[in-house]
Amino acid sequence: MRRLVLFCALLLFLGQASAQSLTRPKLKLGIKAGLDYHSNDFSSKEYRFDIKSNSGWFVGVEADLKWNRWGIHPELLYSKNALDVETPVGYENKIKLHKVDLPILLEYEMWGFFSIQAGPYFALYTKANGISEQFRHNTQDFTRGEWELKRPGFGYAVGAEARIWRLHLTVRYYGTFNNGEGNGVYTYYDKNGNKVQTDDMINGNIKMSNLQFGVGWYF
């Protein structure tokens, strides 16, 4: 359904552009940075883990190519975040998430200072893994947990932008059409550092989304 909506929006944009008189497009380049708020839901057949939402940051470059009220707005963004994972037995892990996204958005200027944006984004690179080491409370054995999350390489983004001269403020939501994959494994050691047990790999699906608040500047 979302793909159909994006396809219809693309057709509307092309039809509107062809109906208007051909004018020279206006191109602007800029930079932006801001807050990246991540939300995640991981579940497997045996367990359900609480991956707590956290706020990180992002930086990037952008371009704005516009014909009258319509335009194309691509960006290249790098973001970094840290996610806390709480397991059913109480162990906690911190997963470090690094990602590079390429959103390519259709833009419509509703008023002179306010535009809405929507379109696909492509995950060019994703690294999400983490390790925790702590003592178990009941046996005082040492446990090590390792996690890795794989985000889908394609999704959608919707948002808005307000402009004041060269300064602009943006709010944007990123979602995915499909779930990603995640896995974790816990290994237990005694107080002397000898391995005593390795749990089976925990595999499951993860639903990832994020909300960004950004400030940018057009040159």
> Any idea how many domains?
1
Percent of residues in helices: under 10%
Which residues form runs of ≥5 with pLDDT under 50? none
- General form: elongated
Q: Which band does the percent of strand residues land in?
A: over 45%
First CA to last CA: what distance?
A: 37 Å
Average pLDDT for all residues: 80
Structural class: mainly beta
Notes on the protein architecture:
This protein has 219 residues and is mainly beta. It has one domain (27-218): Beta Barrel (Porin), CATH 2.40.160.20. Helix content is 8%, strand content 71%. The chain is built from one helix and twelve strands. The protein has one helix at 2-19, and strands spanning 26-43, 48-52, 54-67, 70-86, 92-109, 114-135, 142-150, 154-164, 167-176, 180-189, 195-198, 202-218. Strands 1, 2, 3, 4, 5, 6, 7, 8, 9, 10, 11 and 12 form a twelve-stranded antiparallel β-sheet that branches. It is elongated and about 70 Å long.
Offer a quick outline of the entry.
The protein has one helix at residues 2-19; strands spanning 26-43, 48-52, 54-67, 70-86, 92-109, 114-135, 142-150, 154-164, 167-176, 180-189, 195-198, 202-218.
Give the key terms.
Porin; twelve-stranded antiparallel sheet; mainly beta; 219 residues
Strand-helix topology:
Layout: H1 2-19, E1 26-43, E2 48-52, E3 54-67, E4 70-86, E5 92-109, E6 114-135, E7 142-150, E8 154-164, E9 167-176, E10 180-189, E11 195-198, E12 202-218
Antiparallel strand pairs: 1-2, 1-3, 1-12, 2-4, 3-4, 4-5, 5-6, 6-7, 6-8, 7-10, 8-9, 9-12, 10-11, 10-12
